[in-house]
Amino acid sequence: MDRRTFLKMGAATAVGAVGVGAAVQRIELEAAPLPSDEAASSKNRWGMVIDLDKCARGCTSCADACRTENNVPFYGNPKIDNYWIRIVTFKDPIPNAQERQIPLLCNHCEYAPCAHVCPVAATFKRADGVTLVDKHRCIGCRYCVIACPYKARNFVFQHTEEWVNPDFPKRMHGVAEGCHLCVHRIDRGEQPACVQACADAEHGAMTFGDLKDPSSAVAGLVATSRAHVLRPELGLKPAVYYMGL
Fold first, then answer.
1. What's the N-to-C CA distance of the chain in angstroms?
2. Does 36 map to a domain?
3. CA distances from 39 to 96, 110, 170, 185, 187 (A)
4. What is the pTM (predicted TM-score) of this model?
5. Are 86 and 20 within one domain?
6. Residue 212 burial by Cβ neighbours in a 10 Å radius (0-12, 13-18, 19+)
């Protein structure tokens, strides 16, 4: 066998291996189950309004409830700790302004960059606008983490055995995730854990509901001139609004 023939055979083998590998990956992705979409309907568009004037300084009830409800990994290491809700403090650039805080979470954008950049369709939108991640499909590329303009995506760096809520499924490390508005609670007709915790704390800073229902409290607040989305210039149509910015 001469050198030219050997190189041709080697190239053909390599191409074949790539083709088989791609086919196997495609079969695995197609076989991976997607989260249930049965309860979702395009008749609804779930959203939230957060009134910062009612958000008590130093309160973390919403973030704590989110962590407990969804078993959000916390390792005590700021480099890898996960936060589905981040409490950020800010201060208006005016004399004698008081420091305030703002809860930041996934905005469940209608035009979600995280879903757009995902190469395996692991991040997707439900019919009711909720942004979800299929952990079976996620390959841990972290494109979605980079693409999110609200820094609301997390990457699970380590597996944890500490499971507070046994009703919420476990997930291994190496996947991306973020707030899904407690979709399992929404489908049961309940409020997200953060909203319920805020109400239990008697702050009432969070209002959740159907943005498409003009009679809902959340739609009424959005209709006012006080409700605004973060970074409106991006045109992503977020479903999370803030009052008192």
1. 75
2. no
3. 49, 18, 22, 11, 6
4. 0.80
5. no
6. middle
